[in-house]
Amino acid sequence: QVHLVESGGGPVQAGGSLRLSCDPSGFSTFDSCMAWVRQAPGKERDEVAFINSDGGSNYADSVKGRFTISRDNDKNTLYLQMNDLKPEDTAMYYCAADRWNCYYQHGFQYWGQGTQVTVSS
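The structure corresponding to this sequence follows.
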């Protein structure tokens, strides 16, 4: 059984930084697609970034240059380094995983419970 557990969220002031972590059990990060998806209050889920099995990554335009997705294959952990945070980054951040698919609109096999990020101005 696969479980994805996110951590690292919390309150932060605008301009600050946070690093989110996703620790999967029953699933390997290194040969799969791993993604971060966020959902702001009253809005639909929005894919923030993904990293594929080859190590390639992709970012939403709104976070390019500020967020970095990475994984540690030895620790089997996914990260999202978030810098220069803005109030509009406030959302629940979910870790998502799939053996083959990297795009939210095509569906992910597995989801975490989410970690809340709140950015104050």
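The chain has no helices and eleven strands.
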